[in-house]
Amino acid sequence: MSWGFLRDLLSGVNIYSTGIGRIWVAVVFIFRLLVYIAVAENIWKYEHDEFECNVKQPGCENVCFDHFFPISYIRLWALQLIMVSTPSLLVVFHVAYRENREKHHKQKLYKSPGQVDGGLLCTYLISLILKTGFEIVFLFLFYKLYNGFKVPRLVKCDLRPCPNTVDCYISKPTEKVIFLYFLVATSCLCIVLNLSELSYLIFKYSVKCYLKKYVKKHQ
């Protein structure tokens, strides 16, 4: 598939982001999207063909592979990339709504349609919460589906139609483990960045509200 739409989406949201948000965009684009396209697809490209069991019973190898790899690493990570990026559409839609509202009324309703304040601030905060939530959910999925971020060299399978307990071998396990740890590290970094930006925006808004009340009180 083409990842151009995701690149354009991240570039568009970058206009309304804080400094921390721009770092998040850079991490997603450079350390996740480009790494996925350049490296990850090649590592897991032939994972089914390279999965071998020491028995030629028809169907045994397929059943064992499906048991140990219920969802492909590469497809799950692609889904994760899409899910953690789509909440940014909320911000884009909200800005588009403001701009269309000004055109409809033919007057200036906002200081700047793209300024993160009021309703747009709430939308931005919701997008940060959703992105963080998706990151945590996918980390949990990876942990549960792949036995704690491990890729063993040898797995034993006794599922039907296998005649008995058979040994199955996973190709390039060390390479896959290293990449899996990289995936987890970048996800954790994105969670930290999202929480930092969320805290920064809430703190900034709280200080702004306090100063307004302080000024009114003394006036």
UniProtKB/TrEMBL annotation:
GO MF term (any one): gap junction channel activity
Domain Connexin cysteine-rich per the UniProt entry, residue ranges: 134-201
Database matches in SMART domains: CNX (SM00037), Connexin_CCC (SM01089)
Main location class: other
Pfam families reported for this sequence: Connexin
Compartments (UniProt record): Cell junction, Gap junction; Cell membrane
Residue span(s) of domain Connexin N-terminal: 42-75
Function statement: One gap junction consists of a cluster of closely packed pairs of transmembrane channels, the connexons, through which materials of low MW diffuse from one cell to a neighboring cell.
Subunit structure: A connexon is composed of a hexamer of connexins.
Family per record: Belongs to the connexin family.
Protein name: Gap junction protein
Species this protein is from: Rostratula benghalensis (greater painted-snipe)
Name of the coding gene: Gjb7
